[in-house]
Design a protein that fits this description.
mainly alpha; 64% helix; 2 domains; Tetracycline Repressor, domain 2; Arc Repressor Mutant, subunit A
């Protein structure tokens, strides 16, 4: 159901500490980021308070300020970490060389894996795209870092799409619109929660569901993007202008 309070794609139980820790314990910062990621994914930036984050880790609220200036920094550090995980999975695929069509399939599979392995990622990213409450001080280093990772990732896949079109591996497409389609087919899919599970009839993050989604995306790319080989008996179709003139 849309807007349901139950969100099985984000697995933190509110108020449950991740472990006994203090602000001086090794790994405290990462535990704060883990708890904050799940909470921001579930409720968005405006719906999460620092006290709730602190309680989820087992700290006092004041202890958070040993690690973060405030909620804005914490949010963008969480977002940057999510984007960095995804970039680190995708970059080797783009750098591997070879057939653009096969690289694109591997890129999509790596994106699906990166999102599916961290259930809160998709919901967090979708909220970041559509919500207006998040701070937008572009001077802050964590904001610049997150935006830099995002732009690097988008630029990489757009280069691959343009390379495929130039080489004849892909039919002529808008790389910008194709990237938007791929984002929707991956980020929205895994962020769709109970609605998505109702449509699929199975959990979004089950091994079978993830494997099936990869297969469907491969087939979509092969039938909708990869250029069909021309045969001598099939001359190129006339363009719309030529058809109109005739």
């Amino acid at each position: 159901m849309i807007g349901s309070g139950t969100d099985r794609s984000v697995g933190l139980e509110s108020g449950k500490p991740l472990g006994d820790t203090t602000d001086k314990a090794p790994g405290s910062r990462e535990k704060i980021l883990d708890v904050a990621e799940a909470l921001f994914a579930r409720r968005g930036y405006a719906g999460v308070g620092l006290r709730e984050v602190a309680e989820g880790v087992g700290l006092g609220k004041s202890s958070l300020f040993h690690h973060f200036r405030g909620k804005g920094q914490l949010y963008f550090e969480v977002l940057g970490r999510v984007l960095g995980r995804i970039r680190d999975r995708l970059a080797p695929v783009l750098a591997s060389g070879g057939d653009p069509a096969r690289r694109l399939e591997r890129w999509v599979e790596a994106l699906v894996d990166a999102i599916a392995e961290h259930p809160s990622s998709a919901r967090l990213l979708l909220r970041a795209l559509v919500e207006d409450e998040t701070p937008h001080d572009h001077r802050e280093p964590e904001v610049l870092a997150a935006e830099g990772i995002l732009q690097e990732t988008l630029a990489g896949i757009r280069r691959l799409l343009r390379e495929g079109v130039a080489s004849g591996a892909f039919r002529p497409v808008s790389d910008a619109h194709t990237v938007q389609t791929l984002i929707g087919a991956t980020v929205y899919h895994f962020a769709s929660g109970e609605l998505g599970e109702g449509v699929l009839g199975q959990p979004l993050l089950s091994a079978g569901s993830v494997a099936l989604h990869k297969r469907e995306l491969r087939e979509l790319l092969r039938s909708g993007l990869v250029a069909a080989p021309r045969t001598p008996s099939c001359p190129p179709a006339a363009s719309e202008d030529e058809a109109w003139r005739s």
